[in-house]
Amino acid sequence: MKRKAEDNIEPVSAAPDSEQPDQPSEQQQPEPTQAPATKEATFTDLGLDPRLVQAIAKQNFEKPTLVQRTAIPLALDGQDVLAKAKTGSGKTLAYILPVLQSILKRKQTDTTAYTAALILVPTRELADQVFKVIETFTAFCAKDVQTVKLTDKVSDAVQRSLLSNNPDIVISTPARAWQSINSSTLVVDKLTNLVLDEADLVLSYGYDEDLENISRAIPKGVQAIMMSATLTAEVDTLKALFCRNPKVLNLEEKDAEGEGVKQFIVKTAEDEKFLLAYVIFKLQLVKGKCIIFVADVDRCYRLRLFFEQFGIRSTILNSELPVNSRIHVVEEFNRNVYDILIASDENEVIGDEEDQEASKAPEEEKEEAATEPKEGETEQKRPKKKRKTVKRDKEYGVSRGIDFQNVACVINFDLPTSTKSYTHRIGRTARAAQTGMALSFYVPSDLYRKHVPTSVETAANDEKVLARIIKQQNKQGKEVKPYIFDMNQVEPFRYRMNDALRAVTKVAIREARTRELRQELLKSEKLKRHFEENPGELHHLRHDGELRAARTQAHLKHIPDYLLPKEGKEAITSQHMGFVPLVNKDKKVRGKKFKGKFNRPGGFKVGGRKGDPLKSFKARRKTK
């Protein structure tokens, strides 16, 4: 493995298919021997167990990605690896395959049961995702690899029972892992592999003390693999805690054939965000699945209730929902059950030091305040609002790690508070060499707080954050273009938008939030065992039903022709959207017996009597 001795940007040249041809020539002499192998490399060439190769072939994976063909050989050789690669590049499989290979190889000579691998992730959603990936790729060796995730809400007795069998792989957040280690239910004396997924995010979630305790508990010499989308000071801290001279792979991979995320920004007033969102989805200006990021939980329900006024169906993802419901929402979204997902990004990544000014925005749930609250004092300031005391899940995260599939568009309804969070949000689309679009609304300072009911306090720094975003994207050679809506064509829809917004009151939001939480708790807890026994019925459980908390106005669900611009008529013709009559009145009635009867005021005769019996309640008694 001498060709891998250089540990920073050299592995990029190992993918000549995604770089310029002249770049590999500038590298060291050993590189030419590496390039031919990686150019035509397959999973079979990596020396993996045949059962793993068979599972990979079943998923129709032909060639490993750049991070996979670079990191897997190093990990199989026993090296500590710290890899930086963009979202959607295949980092999960890059560390799962070496871990599984190590376990299967050991069990050929030693069948002793003990926990050999500990995978630490920042959020429960990501833990569930990793668990399912392991299940997929151990399809042909399931008896030899036992995996347990500690993020499920189970009793201590159940958790002890799960860990008593000494599973080969344990997936957990750092807090749960340390709790289990400290209580001696998780034994790590023989641990051989430690993985930190989304390493730069783990410390930002407040797991620093737990990670320090884990580092002291695990044996010396454990192989550490860290995967991250960025290399930050937090990653350096973790590297010092767990790694022994790791190989640092800074993998910058260009988008395939110049494709990727097309980024657009829209300058808008606070209430016009709702107007433009209404026009975008009602006129179907965006095709395919869309994730809408908002600043807090209240905004989730405000936007969803607003959409319901127009018959636009959507579902919600936020930290208040039970973890089982959140996981099911993600699964159903990936199965194309829902087209619009409204996600609150409460635990968004705060940027580096230059982003601290923007990160000083108040807690997302605070609707109106004269001053910015300090961290941790929001709950004390609102003791009388019951909905504010709902316990949110600190292990929730949506802008990072979760594998949202086939997302066509990401809309930043509320601009994030840092460039780092922006990068991870738009990374939910254009994954795996696909194309996508990111549309971000920003409120200029002169329009901030001009429409108080729709105002959010994070918008106070939109212009500053946007300037950093544009500067950062320009450094990466990406352009953020302005998108100009023709407001002359949009303006006719404004009065309908105002009608809908007036119906979405604070009371309606509070009731919707409470009702949704109550319903999801019922689905998540009381029906959990039922769905385990009847998994087929889980597919019929939906999360996009109408909340019916706001006053509904039926006329808003249909758009009259006089509101439409000429360019938009084709998108909402009767064959695509609109009222569909149950009876075709233009169809001629065949036969002479009932000719003309349907058009008469009294309808046709029933039992020799005139009139409709359902209206007159004089139906003739049935004779024996």
UniProtKB/TrEMBL annotation:
Residues 16-38 have a biased composition (Low complexity). It is found in: Nucleus. It catalyses: ATP + H2O = ADP + phosphate + H(+). Residues 1-38, 351-392, 594-624 are annotated as: Disordered. Residues 357-381 have a biased composition (Basic and acidic residues). A motif (Q motif) lies at residues 41-69. Residues 382-391 have a biased composition (Basic residues). The keyword Hydrolase applies. Keywords: ATP-binding, Helicase, Hydrolase, Nucleotide-binding, Nucleus, Ribosome biogenesis, RNA-binding. One of its GO terms (cellular component) is nucleus. Residues 260-488 form the Helicase C-terminal domain. Its EC number is 3.6.4.13. InterPro entries: DEAD/DEAH_box_helicase_dom, DEAD_box_RNA_helicase, Helicase_ATP-bd, Helicase_C-like, P-loop_NTPase, RNA_helicase_DEAD_Q_motif. Residues 72-249 form the Helicase ATP-binding domain. It is an enzyme of class 3 (hydrolase). GO terms for molecular function: ATP binding; hydrolase activity; RNA binding; RNA helicase activity. Gene3D superfamilies: P-loop containing nucleotide triphosphate hydrolases (3.40.50.300). Residues 41-69 form the DEAD-box RNA helicase Q domain. GO terms for biological process: gene expression; ribosome biogenesis. Belongs to the DEAD box helicase family. DDX56/DBP9 subfamily. ATP-binding RNA helicase involved in the biogenesis of 60S ribosomal subunits and is required for the normal formation of 25S and 5.8S rRNAs. This is RNA helicase. It comes from Coniochaeta pulveracea. The gene is DBP9.
